[in-house]
Design goal:
By secondary structure, this protein is of the alpha+beta class. Among the domains are: 64 residues, 2-Layer Sandwich (Alpha-Beta Plaits), CATH 3.30.70; 139 residues, no CATH class. The protein has 7 helices and 12 strands. It has a 4-stranded antiparallel beta sheet, covered by helices on one side. A 3-stranded antiparallel beta sheet has the order 7-8-9. The chain has a 3-stranded parallel beta sheet with strand order 11-10-12. Strand 3 and strand 4 form a beta hairpin. Helix 1 crosses helix 2. The longest helix has 24 residues. It is elongated and about 85 Å long.
Length: 299
């Protein structure tokens, strides 16, 4: 029997879905969706890394930070004049992405091209686009490396978890301040950003250790109230100046005493000799220095 295709029309084609086929379709869609949700739940970092890399590629494309060239492509039939011109990418910036221990490392190759200035100033785009905080920007041979802290909300810890031990202070799940090797900290932020509460949290954690604290609050605000429960808290101009000078003299005297200890070793710090750390906590330091001048000997 012959089949006449000319008699076939859309009106004669009927698609009949049985209940079994419908259940199979819905089950397949539900299973695929469940697997996707499980993947995102158990492998959030990998999912986020794919999302970040897609954003980086889109940043290059939408800003046109690449170069193209015109190429001729021949048609399928070579005897016909069917060649056409198309654009192909001749240069695309090399970007290396790595996610490790809560930090993003993004390396961008610098090739002295016309997009060099844009690639050297990506920090604001990366912070806002990837919802990260820039930790370090380092210019190296032929590339610039941006190090960013990501997923800050998920890595926050409670005040009780901020503990000072073994020369380090835990600030986040993936961030510590190693004050033994890096003794200086600058806290900056806008008004109402939580700088004072952050300082109070650090002070509480350090008080639970063997550290000795000297607190200066020239505004006579929240930190000055600590004077009712602990020593070495100053808010008046003369007291602050005297405390800074005394702290400096203590530092010089202890440095000389350390060199005379039998177990002294060049390059090691106070912790190696079993001495307690001393902290000078100065609130509103820049404003105070702008309004007052210390003696030249201790500036």
């Amino acid at each position: 029997r012959q089949f006449d295709i000319s008699r076939v029309s859309l009106s004669t084609i009927e698609t009949v879905w049985s209940m079994k086929e419908l259940i199979c379709l819905l089950g397949s869609l539900g299973f695929s969706g469940a697997m996707l949700l499980l993947y995102i739940h158990f492998f959030p970092d990998h999912w986020r890394s794919l999302w970040h890399r897609q954003k980086l590629a889109r940043m290059i494309l939408e800003n046109h930070w690449y170069e193209v060239k015109q190429t001729q492509s021949e048609g399928f039939f070579k005897d016909l004049n069917s060649s056409r011109t198309r654009e192909t990418i001749s240069y695309f910036p090399k970007i290396y992405y790595r996610m490790k221990e809560g930090l993003l490392s993004i390396r961008v190759q610098i090739s002295l091209g016309k997009y060099q200035e844009q690639l050297l100033k990506l920090e604001k785009k990366l912070e806002s686009g990837l919802y990260c905080e820039l930790v370090e920007k380092e210019l190296k041979d032929s590339y610039v490396e941006y190090t960013l802290l990501y997923d800050m909300i998920a890595n926050r810890i409670g005040i009780d978890e901020v503990v000072a031990e073994n020369g380090t202070l835990r600030l986040m799940k993936n961030q510590v301040w190693a004050y033994d090797s890096l003794p200086h900290m600058l806290i900056a932020g806008g008004t109402g950003g939580g700088k004072t509460y952050f300082l109070l949290t650090i002070i509480e954690a350090l008080l639970k250790s063997d550290a000795e604290l000297f607190i200066l609050d020239p505004k006579n605000a929240d930190l000055a109230d600590l004077g009712t429960v602990m020593p070495h808290v100053y808010s008046q101009k003369e007291e602050i100046s005297a405390c800074v000078e005394d702290f400096y003299e203590r530092m010089i005297a202890r440095s000389k005493a350390m060199k005379e200890m039998p177990n002294y070793k060049p390059g090691e710090n106070y912790a190696y000799l079993g001495l307690p750390p001393n902290f000078l906590i100065f609130d509103e330091y820049v404003a105070y220095m702008g309004a007052n001048r210390f003696p030249t000997s201790i500036e």
